[in-house]
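Hi both,

Apologies for the delay on this - the queue was longer than expected. I finally got the flavin-adenine dinucleotide-bound model through. Below you'll find the protein sequence and the ligand SMILES exactly as submitted, and right after that the structure tokens for the full complex including the ligand.
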Amino acid sequence: MRPARVAAVRTLSPHFRLAELEGDALRNVAWTAGQKVQVSMNSGLSARTYTPMSWDADAGRTRILTFAHGDGPGSRWASGLREGDPCQFFGPRRSLDLSGLAAPVVLFGDETSFGLAAALRDSPQGADAIHVFEGSDVAELRPVLEAIGLGQATLIERTAGETHLAAAEAEALRLAASGAHFILTGKASSIQRVGRALKAAGVVSSRIKAKAYWAQGKTGWTSVFSMERFRQ
Ligand SMILES: Cc1cc2nc3c(=O)[nH]c(=O)nc-3n(C[C@H](O)[C@H](O)[C@H](O)COP(=O)(O)OP(=O)(O)OC[C@H]3O[C@@H](n4cnc5c(N)ncnc54)[C@H](O)[C@@H]3O)c2cc1C
């Protein structure tokens, strides 16, 4: 566990907060874009996973972008964060390995993927990445993306019955035609849909990296979601 304190917290919208964590234990840490941290919740009995947007190993600082979707320990922790609060976390730990990606790179994700997108944008392999996000409230998401320098992202509003995923699939297939490499993150079932569509169109699995960040009905989701099943 690395002890840290909340150096600053900025509310970007009703559901999004940008938290800067600092501490001596964050110095001299080797971090690469795509890795995760697992933050201990206030009870200390559970943890929730977040993606560092950046890591300053000299200053001992990292930043995470939290999306409070509703009622869960992570959402409550993020909503209640105050400057000066102590916190503890595991990591950074391996999550998505972004090495080996060739341009054009496409990131498909959702509200939970904005931190990853910012980290990717600041890394050599992702500087020109194209971002496509599904989200529940596009009007809220647009200014959040602008605030973190991702205002060019394509946003697809979620619909009842997930009919919007047809638009996500179509966009992914359009981009696949130019030889894109894909990073799929966010909601497990959405990743599955888009991944299957790509595979059906002949996109080889070496061009796809996928990791589910949450799944309907699963709490504290940390499982690894690989593309193995798409290869079979
Ligand atoms: C590797 C990794 C990196 C991640 N990075 C980030 C990040 O940078 N920022 C971030 O905000 N989140 C991130 N997440 C997602 C976050 O950890 C989950 O959304 C987590 O479940 C939130 O915890 P909670 O306590 O609020 O909800 P939980 O108690 O875990 O879940 C309760 C219920 O809420 C629903 N739920 C969970 N997440 C969502 C959601 N996003 N939208 C709608 N419904 C949901 C599910 O149905 C679940 O059963 C990441 C997850 C992983 C695995």
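Main takeaway for now: The first helix runs from residue 73 to 80.

I'll put the files on the shared drive as well.

H.
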